[in-house]
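Researcher: Please generate the 3D structure of the following complex. Treat every line as part of one assembly.
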Amino acid sequence: MIIMSFATVAILFSLGLFTILVQRNAFKTVIGLTLMESAVLLLFISWAYIPEGWAPILPLKGSGVDPLPHALTLTAIVIGACDLALAFAFIMKLNGFEKTVDVDSFRRLKG
Amino acid sequence: MMPLLRFLGSVCILAGVFFSFAAVVAILRFPDVYTRLHGGTKALSGGALLILLGSMPYAGSSLGALKLLLIAVFFLISNPMASHAIARACHRRTLFKNFSHFSSETPIEGESMRE
Amino acid sequence: MSEPLLAFLYFFILLTAFVAVFLDDLLSSFISLSVTGVLMATVFALLRAPDVALTQAIINSGLITSLLLVAYSHTRRTPLPSGPCTACPSWLRWPLAALICFLLAVLLFRGMYSLAGERALETASTHFLAETLRETGALNVVAAILLDYRAFDTLGETTVIFAAVAGISLLLSGGKHVRSRQGLSFIVKRGMALLTPFLLLYAASILFLGHLTPGGGFQGGSVFATVAILICVVYGTGFDASRVSSKSKETLEVGGALLFVFIGLLGAAWGGGFLANLKGPFFPGTPGSLFSGGNMLFLNLAVGLKVGAGLSSIFYVMIKILEQEGEQ
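Model: Done. Output below.
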């Protein structure tokens, strides 16, 4: 079962990277970034899962799953949301200058 | 008593799945935004309500069943409100105001925005 | 844990991700992305991670989608990219990128495959699961790790939120509030007035009971920010801007950070070290009651203030720029 999770993680991560490389709309770049972050979160949580384990709320009914990657994932979700909001602000500001969201036309620093 | 309630719960969940599927078909196949919204709201509210009510016998405790009931009440209040907001926004922008897409003549220019 | 159910959910996660990437209509791809977020929250809940599932559902599917829609409606009148790019033609771009991503996927899977084996808990995790009640007095192990064992990392995370809010306010400065908005119709306003007390109660219960049940400062603060966004959308910006100024939101945010540092310094002054819990002037209380867990209640409040005020001021800054353009 964990092989299934790892396969999903690998496919989701490379799909996000493909989006960032190929798509010309800046919003699709942000979507690709979201997918990459979601893949990493899924990797943490599926790594922390122990078969026949319970959620890490005391009193435990048996053995528990690993609680340390859960804390790491919580921090990662909030930080990911903050950098996505900053990316939206960048897109809005660049749209004010260039009047388009095409990433191929952001060429002021070129050459 | 409990197996009978669980059987009724399963029947409710299956009916809810059918209603939600009908809502998806309505959103895909109806021609106009108003008809799509109508089908989506009514069928979706009914479907979600039936699924939530049907899973009440399967909850672990009576507290869990009460929480599911509260979620159903909240959904019943908020989903029609949201659909009303969408429909009113479409109406204010005079989308499809003359229903001219049902006839063969050319569409007339809609009125300006009312505040 | 049923494998067919997980396989079904993974298949739909990948399907909605593909739809979000390859669809030309931007609004549909945004909705598909938010569906991916909700499905991932379901997977997290099935993999016995209730805290993470709650956070993912609230932040990724709720807050990020609304910020995305605000950014999209600001750029709506500019034309979408079309026409070929002369610098790197598309017949070179797509296959090369596909090859690179395929190789990366194979490499990642091969690397992760060697990790899959018999899972056993590490020493740190067994210590956390066994000793949390005795060492902190709280019942939620993840909250105890975030606010007691690794509280310094949480302080760093609030710094990241502060940096993001400062950066966004700097980038999008120079607009002014338009106060003549009407908001939505009467039915929606009355319905929202009925629901808002319960939403606020829900947010407060997640925040204050974070050391007992899944939840905590981040989740509660995000629900508070969602309520602020809803009030702004339903009642119009004139309603909120006249009663709660942006200065008070900044005060709340900075107040949250200062409260966090002050509690840490209290622990240092008592002799237990910075952000000390039971070694500082805090007492554990009876397990399972509200006033237990030492300083975790106050740290949750500080984090919730910071996150809630920060996220809602991000939204208000974006809306402000939106109305400067003069659209309605």
